[in-house]
Amino acid sequence: MSLNMFWFLPTHGDGHYLGTAEGARAVDHGYLAQIAQAADRLGYGGVLIPTGRSCEDSWLVAASLIPVTQRLKFLVALRPGIISPTVAARQAATLDRLSNGRALFNLVTGGDPAELEGDGLFLTHEERYEASVEFTRIWRRVLEGNVVDYDGKHIQVKGAKLLYPPIQQPRPPLYFGGSSEAAQDLAAEQVDLYLTWGEPPAAVAEKIAQVREKAAKQGRTLRFGIRLHVIVRETNEEAWRAADRLIENLDDETIARAQASFAKFDSVGQQRMAALHKGKRDNLEVSPNLWAGVGLVRGGAGTALVGDGPTVAARVKEYADLGIDTFVLSGYPHLEEAYRVAELLFPHLDVALPQQPQGAGYISPFGEIVANHILPKAASQS
Fold first, then answer.
1. Is 381 part of any domain?
2. Residue 291: which H helix or E strand, with range?
3. Residue 115 maps to which CATH number?
4. Is residue 382 a part of any domain in this protein?
5. d(CA 76, CA 92)
6. Which residue segment(s) compose the domain that 95 sits in?
7. Which end of the chain has less Cβ packing within 10 Å, N or C?
8. Of 283, 315, 297, the residue nearest 247 (C-alpha)
9. Has residue 380 been placed in a domain?
10. What is the reported pLDDT for 382?
11. Phi and psi (nearest 5°) for 308?
12. Model pLDDT, residue 374
């Protein structure tokens, strides 16, 4: 099985060290373009663009990078409860057309209640997943060309439709990650690729088995992916020194402050990340070559594979053997590490090479739009 290797665009900041301003790097459009172009040339299939109030808007970042890349796909965030599913479907179709079929979408329900309240969303964890299910049902069906009436608990639409279809048919793929029972139920019903954060292989295997079983009961099959940081060097010793260096400027107060903030999240995935390191610097290798140091001060994905190319490749293959075909990777700083990972890790893996779109782009329908209907092309005169 060829593996899809994705990279990450650090729109919330980048640098040589975690949890400190020392060695921090200014992130602007030029820098993001450098990373995107490097990923495009090095053979990464796509880039994940993060979301949240500490990040640049993922949709605008993706749109701005379409003209400077050729093959790279952009995994951007859908935020249920913050935007209408019909409007989001129109935006998704537009981005897919403008990129010539290079748009991917990542359903993000959110795990920080304070941030969600700042965006006007006051639902509980359970209610957010209820709303996410309703949102996604509408979003998918509209993108697939249906006229949708939906009367849900949280969302109601009548006559929702899309006049201009996406290039990818029946619609662009939908990614999603979540560890709670409600999240797994949503994934089983509606998503195309289920993402997990980098937990030890046994825990990942259990999660995949649960989602796969739930999907099978609905007559569906899913693809699987994993979100990981990577610290790869020419030797294992160099790689572990680089891991230590990444957190060498962290003090206990900064770690405690970060962990206190993450403890307020209602994300089950975040709780599972925190349980790996328990806020302590010791015993950060939570599984062979799986290091939890990133999660001391970073929310979300908090683990890294550490080692030389063959060693990290062996760990990647262990995850692949569980059924994972997509690896969303990152490393600090992201520009240099994109090269290191491609040069030191890719040669030891069967990496799926992305194909350049063949110009199948969208052809505008003939006629004007009148009263929300496309006027047909006039019959030819003989």
1. no
2. strand 290-291
3. 3.20.20.30
4. no
5. 9
6. 4-374
7. C
8. 297
9. no
10. 40
11. -80, 175
12. 64
Which of 81 and 333 is assigned the larger pLDDT?
333
280 neighbors 254 (Cβ within 8 angstroms)? no
Q: Give the chain's mean pLDDT.
A: 92
**Coarse DSSP helix, strand, coil percentages of the chain, rounded to the nearest 5 percent:** 40, 20, 40
| 91 CB-near residues (< 8 Å, 6+ apart) | 59
Count of domains in the chain?
1
DSSP 3-state of 158: strand
**Relative orientation angle of helices 201-217 and 309-321, to the nearest 10 degrees:** 30
Write 235-244 long-range contacts (CB < 8 A, 24+): 235/308, 236/306, 236/307, 236/308, 236/311, 238/308, 239/306, 239/307, 239/308, 239/311, 239/312, 240/306, 240/307, 242/306, 243/291, 243/293, 243/304, 243/306
Q: Could you give the CA distance from residue 319 to residue 241 in angstroms, rounded to a whole number?
A: 24
Q: Report, as an integer, the average pLDDT of 26-48.
A: 97
Q: Can you say whether residue 102 is alpha, beta or left, with left for phi > 0 and alpha for psi between -120 and 50 degrees?
A: alpha
Query: Does the predicted model carry a pTM greater than 0.90?
Result: yes
| Amino acid of residue 23 | G
Beta strands 193-197 and 223-233 are parallel
Q: What is the residue-wise DSSP string for 65-85?
A: HGGG-SS-EEEEEE-BTTB-H
pLDDT of residue 375: 63
Residue 146 CA to residue 50 CA, distance in Å, equals 30
Give the mean pLDDT of 5-13.
Answer: 94
Find the farthest-apart pair of alpha carbons in the chain and give their distance in angstroms, rounded. Answer: 83
Task: Summarize pLDDT for 45-76 with one digit per residue, the tens.
Answer: 999 999 988 899 999 999 999 999 999 999 99
Query: Which tokens go with 92?
Result: 């998704």
129: pLDDT strictly greater than 70: yes
Domain-located, residue 113:
yes
Can you tell me the distance from the alpha carbon of 95 to that of 73, in angstroms, rounded to the nearest whole number? 11
Contact 14, 25 (CB under 8 A): yes
151 by DSSP, 3-state: which? strand
